[in-house]
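Exercise 7.
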Amino acid sequence: MNRIDAAAWLFVLGCRSGAAEPLDAAASPQASAEPVVLVGTPLGTAASPGPMDAAVIPLPFRADRPLAADSVPREVREGPRDAAAPRESREPCDLAGLRLTASLRPLETPAWTKSPELNAPALEAARRKTDGRLLIELAASRLRIVVASSGLVLPVGTELRARADRYGHVVVWPDTNGYRLAAPGSLRALFGERRLDVAPLATAYVGLSGEGSRAHNLRTRRVQVDTRAGKATIDLATIRETTDSASLLCRTLLDFLNAAPSTPVCGPDELPLHATFSWSPSGGLVFDVLSIEHRADLRPQDLSAPPVGTFLGTDLPLPPAELLVPRSDLPTFRTAPVDLPSAPDASPTEPGLVLVNSTDQLLAVWVDGVALLWVAPGAREVLLGLVRGRYTVQWRTFLGEAVDVPQLLGVPGVSEVGAADAGRR
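Solution. The predicted structure, written as tokens, is:
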């Protein structure tokens, strides 16, 4: 058994979880180091998937090839000392690891235009509902990310799974038996447009930026990563007994920059707690870990990549539009309706807000600072439920690379984007 195999088995023996260890209070000697340039290692080859070895470079996932069944390390619980049950009948042991809750939100969000009828508490409540929440589990050199709230292009229940001996992610669609493979370089398209287009991997320049912000009673060190796609600052904390799992979350964050997953950003047992992304030329995301739990009850079947009993699918479903907040919330955005004067030559309009996306991008529609829905390329949607009055409407991509100028529109009314992109920046 090699060194890393032994570490993986020690991680699950006894079904006990570890404890987070704050970093040493003294300033890190790296805090004053000059930035260095590190180039991501090219994707390599490996003889076959399996436990990680120091001499083995993980293989990237390929979307045209189904995966063999994944075998996640398990351990058998010891029963009571006087238990007479045979060993093979005893319950398989769950895994010890970490469970995180995190948020993924736009770097910049539009504001609403104040008016006497505007219901600010209702709008703020709707904003909170659309703050993209993620549930993250790390154990046994595996990673599982679950979309836990609306506010993202991906529906609630979508999963991303990863393993240390492979580059890329397995995308598990909710309420289906199918999975898709997200090769390295595809997460920006997945979270931006619900597509699995693969972007070319870029050279990453990694520099040390000193001490990061303190979070969860842990000191962090800050790293800056630059690629031609954008840049990120990442705050890393040391948490023991994460084996190869923490590095998988680093790989996920690097994928948003189209950086090679082998880029050396995280050290041993280092977990990203915060990351700020900014794209070139505009837009960005913020990733924040909101809570950390040490668990001893993570299920191996939840972490296998691919999941047991699934099959390789094709394209991801893309309906014409999808509402991100309950429709019953829409009337609460105003305390009372407002009658708007009609222009003398105005033609009759449909009830509600008619939304037309004449671009070739999936776009979110923000109304009064809330991401209400997204509309697919070339689609038309009628948003019903808004009280008669004026609203601030803005079209933008989910990742913020393309943003239209906000418009103050009357409802009922029409908003179209793409016919003349004068307002797009």
